[in-house]
Design a protein that fits this description.
By secondary structure, this protein is an alpha+beta fold. The protein contains 8 helices and 16 strands. The protein has 2 domains: 110 residues, Diaminopimelate Epimerase, Chain A, domain 1; 133 residues, Diaminopimelate Epimerase, Chain A, domain 1, CATH 3.10.310. The protein has a 16-stranded mixed sheet that branches. It is globular and about 55 Å long.
């Protein structure tokens, strides 16, 4: 904005235009003063949570969004493309690619929405991929509601998945594919120790995901309704998710039951997602903190 204004002012003064005409030109020119908000989502304490950087008042092209997200190297950057109470639109970018859906990013965006529009307690968040996410706030608690998505029934080689995860085939209990907007391969392991010991081939998983149109692998261990999980869809192990909403939602859908999904313990960043099941929608909720 300031560079644009300076060039405009220089051009007008060089051509002898009066100050009033210069002011009119300024008022008719769009200015974008980008603002950033760092939020921590689904943390179990005020000091924990999966980071999401929400960017408002921007005029980035898709290529510029990707370059910005790559430079930030955070789990997700959420760009508010339209800040309106009735048409609140967002776009999600990982450091290495755009994502059709990120639910911890959606939770961050929802928090900003209710900050922008404090008189409202519910709305619909629109994603760049065209998905509608219901958002609701009650006593400062924010929840998201997403619709189950139909996925093509595929069979996956357990040995191939074991190789991607770098584990023995006997450690895998089950494999399912499910989606609430971004398909996840859900791989149940036989122990939490084996889950935390995982050192998968991240580049191979990302390449496999592109080939199969699947947004990564979510490995988990379950005891009844309590789940501990790890998500693998980034190229850099340093930005492993501490909470993955699309995976928690997909698992809730696949198991058709309410879940408490724990994640991030291995990263010293413990998180908890509460996932609630119904046949028509999956609801997710958790804590969120804004760092200004």
């Amino acid at each position: 904005g300031f560079i644009q204004e300076g060039l405009l002012r220089e051009s007008y003064l060089r051509n002898g235009v009066y100050a009033s005409q210069y002011l009119m030109a300024i008022l008719s020119t769009e200015y974008f003063v980008m603002r950033q908000h760092l939020l921590r989502c689904f943390g179990t304490t005020a000091e924990t949570g999966n980071c999401a950087l929400v960017v408002e008042q921007h005029n980035f092209s898709p290529a510029q969004k990707q370059a910005f997200a790559t430079t930030q190297n955070l789990p997700v950057c959420v760009f508010i493309d339209n800040n309106s109470a009735t048409n609140f639109s967002v776009d999600f970018y990982y450091p290495h690619r755009q994502s059709p859906l990120c639910l911890h990013g959606s939770l961050a965006a929802a928090r900003m929405f209710f900050n922008f529009y404090p008189d409202l307690n519910q709305a619909v968040l629109l994603t760049a991929a065209g998905q509608r996410i219901k958002i609701h706030q009650h006593n400062s608690q924010i929840s998201l509601a997403v619709t189950p998505q139909v996925v093509v029934d595929k069979s996956f080689s357990h040995s191939e998945i074991a190789q991607l995860l770098g584990i023995n085939l006997t450690q895998i209990k089950s494999i399912q594919l499910a989606s609430v907007g971004s398909p996840k391969l859900l791989v149940e392991l036989n122990s939490v120790a084996n889950l935390f010991a995982l050192k998968p081939d991240l580049h191979a998983i990302v390449a496999w995901g592109k080939l199969n149109a699947i947004n990564g692998i979510y490995a988990y261990y379950r005891e009844s309704a309590s789940v501990t999980g790890r998500n693998f869809n980034h190229l850099d192990a340093r930005v492993e998710d501490s909470a993955t909403g699309v995976a928690a939602g997909a698992l809730c859908l696949a198991l058709q039951m309410d879940l408490e999904v724990y994640q991030g313990q291995n990263l010293n960043n413990p998180c908890l997602i509460q996932a609630s099941y119904s046949a028509s929608e999956i609801s997710l909720s958790g804590r969120i903190y804004l760092d200004e």
